[in-house]
Amino acid sequence: MTSVEILSAELDGAATTEERRRARLHVDGCASCRDWYREATALTRAVRVMPAEPGPDVTEAVLPALRPSRLDRLRGARGRPLRLGLRWLLGLVALLQLGTAVLYLTGPGVRVLPGASHGTAPHVDHETGAWNAALAVALVWVALRSRHAAAQLPVLASFTGVLGGLCLLDLLTDRVGLGRVLSHVPVLIGLALVAVLAVLRGPERFPGFPESGYAGADPDEADEPGTGPGPAEAAEPEGSGPSPVAHRASA
User: Which parts of the sequence belong to the Putative zinc-finger domain (predicted)?
Assistant: First the structure.
């Protein structure tokens, strides 16, 4: 590394103490390097203090891309009343679904096979009641813990899809009455509410992957017990992170 390179590095604040010491010794005995260093120092100061040239204003082009979309705003604090309302409505639908299950389990409900024998019809009704009770529990769980909405969607959607297709087939072949089909309406409404809550919840965040998007922490988490910060997080003092990097003052 030549003396000129060391002097240039010194002007940029990149030279080590030993390199600066050797460069100073060389400058004291070299007139050309001394003149070069003086001119380079003056030029460096002039460049650093000169006014910056005005550039194009890109505010209007950048800000629209940074503004959150309507869906992102609904996922934040602004959409909290809507999410709470959907959870209350889902809870009512779950109670209605549970009532339907009780009717099948206790006997007054609509028969699955009206013309079946007395030995098979009650058992089929019991199976149907058990399924309806399980679906009611799933809906109640999502109403209480909306962060689990996406996890319940595969089961609810597959069950409702298969059931809807079979109901349509049975209606066309006159194998089921309209009252029986209408008893499945709470499941369909519950599926729609769970799907909306899953969308408002936002994409799942997996451990080890950085969070993206506007959603951040779910404001609904504060209403759910056991979701607050742990003792280690609560006791962590401010300023315990890494210290900011010191910046070299400009000449």
Answer: 5-34
